[in-house]
Structure formats: structure tokens, C-alpha cells
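Each record in this resource describes a single protein on a pair of labelled lines. An example record follows, reproduced without changes.
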Amino acid sequence: MLKLTTLFLLVGLLFAAVPGAPLQESDIAVAAANGDWRSFQKLLSQGLHYGENFEGIKNLQPQGPGSHVYGEGEYRYYTSTNINGQKSEQRGGRKIVNKDGILQEYDLD
């Protein structure tokens, strides 16, 4: 069990160091050290919702008569846990399409 806890602690710290990950590095480490996997998974999942950065696509505009632009971006996430037989899944995402300055946005499941 100690090796597994150490592994999750290291993985948690690695995720905490990645931009977009939750800022509560110490909370992640404490949850892993205490074997509180539900809190551990919740803290790691918080950083997944920062994946959306579509400003470049949203700002595309045709640059004159006869010109066209097309941009498309998408991100998805999926997390799954099984803690003592209690399963939990989370998934979602976002998609944006810019066709000649006309935006369409979609929530993905």
C-alpha cells in the first residue's frame, strides 16, 4: 500500500506542476498521503476544465472581399475512478467552429 500511495503522491505532484492543473499542490499531496482517493481525484479533475483556449479561433475574420477563414478547435476530457467498488465517471468537452467569422459553439458529452 505504501508503494501505491507513493506512486499517487508523485503523480499528483506531477499534475500539480503542469499549467492548468489545480493550484492546491499541498491538498493533492495530503489527500494522496492519507489515502483519500475521492478528494485526490476531485482535485486533479479541477484542472481539466482549463483546457479551453479558443481565442485565436474566435478572433478569425475574413481580411477583405473574396477572402474566407475557417477555424475549428475541440477539447475533451474523461476521468474514471473505482474506489472500493464505487465507480465514478466524468466526461465533457467543448468545440468551436468559426466559418467566415460566424461562430458555432458546442458542449460535448
